[in-house]
Amino acid sequence: MDMTSPLTTPAAPSSAVRWTPRLWGTLLVLCAAMFLDALDVSMVGVALPSIGSDLDLSTSALQWIVSGYILGYGGLLLLGGRTADLLGRRQVFLVALGVFALASLLGGLVDSGPLLIASRFIKGLSAAFTAPAGLSIITTTFAEGPLRNRALSIYTTCAATGFSMGLVLSGLLTEASWRLTMLLPAPIALIALVAGLKLLPRSERENDHNGYDIPGAVIGTASMLLLVFTVVQAPQVGWASARTLLSFLGVAALLTVFVLVERRSPGPLIRLGVLRSGSQIRAQLGAMAFFGSYVGFQFLVTLYMQSLLGWSALHTALAFLPAGALVAVSSTKVGSIVDRFGTQRLIAAGFALMVVGYALFLRVNLDPVYAAVILPSMLLIGAACALVFPSLNIQATNGVEDHEQGMVSGLLNTSVQVGGAIFLAVVTAVVTAGAPEHATPQAVLDSYRPGLVVVTGIALAGLLITLTGLRTPRAQQSVVVAKSTSLEAERVSVRD
Description:
By secondary structure, the protein is mainly alpha-helical.
């Protein structure tokens, strides 16, 4: 299978290929979209109090400004990934990016809570199409190996940088108006859209003679939407409430039907043979543990800094900045490190750093010395993100044929979002259960510690899952990747 990019010189070894200006431009457009996705997620959190005050929204309504985005994003990623494969990655990416820009403009202009929530859902929906389409454009444009590893390390670094910058920018912009935090992504998305029209390589639609898996798309999307909705609502209505239990039962039923449909469909939304690969399963579970633990940690630390220490939104954002800065600085180095050590070793090392970083944060008190107590955790977690996130993306997309890159990209992003939603809800429930009414600041801090223990445990689970992949030789590990055009499987060797 020839995976050499038409934008590079095919005669040269992949490690010696000189990137053309157009190739850099292509990567820059895709990085801009990923940067915007992460930026949008982090910016809205700091702006919520101002939004609630201006629009007179209750706490539950404010939650849906965040949850609406997660619902659209996490619920439609599987459909977004397969749509990119079937209808063309470039076309899907550009259309979704345009919708993202329009929804950003709408969100900054509305004067109604329901309309703001609707704009957030639309933005999440559009991101569910840009994220897998963008990742699959990278994996089909850059040849597997050092070339792709370098591209993915830069791409994933933009996500971490966007998340970190979103915290800082939101703190600054909210001082003027919360509407600026909603409007900021619009011009950036429009610039990326115009550049993408010129720079992104054209992709042909997949000639799927088996037709579209409409039942699988409907059932799969419904199951993901219901799962995310149930997890987001569970802390409010109760994990043991009849509503929550019935919703989880409905999710289980839908997923069972989805698997049965996919096994019988000639052109499935998700080809289940991909999950026969141990490295693929570890990548998906690792993505859930990685993002779930970090989102839970950020949630608790933000509450700790602002509610207990009285820090401003900008002060809190600056406290997180060293982690993001470390990721940004290391962006050009991670690809070569992956080439040398392989993804499994880097993911394991990263999870180990996360476990230590989270555990060290348990030392915090009501009068911490930032440099001695908080900064070490931030640096360890930043180093972990720099190692884990690019490696997970590389591991998930290695050994997968071009026409299925969108599907695998959607699956990986779904694992990230669902993991974040589930584990954040769990951490929230643990902290809420241990928080006494009218408590002293010390009692509130003590109620946060079990949540930090859970966060540390999630990262430890990710480490243990990753370590199971180190029992096989790193250089050549045989995994099963079934052809989508045939029922028989082929074996390919991938560097794991």
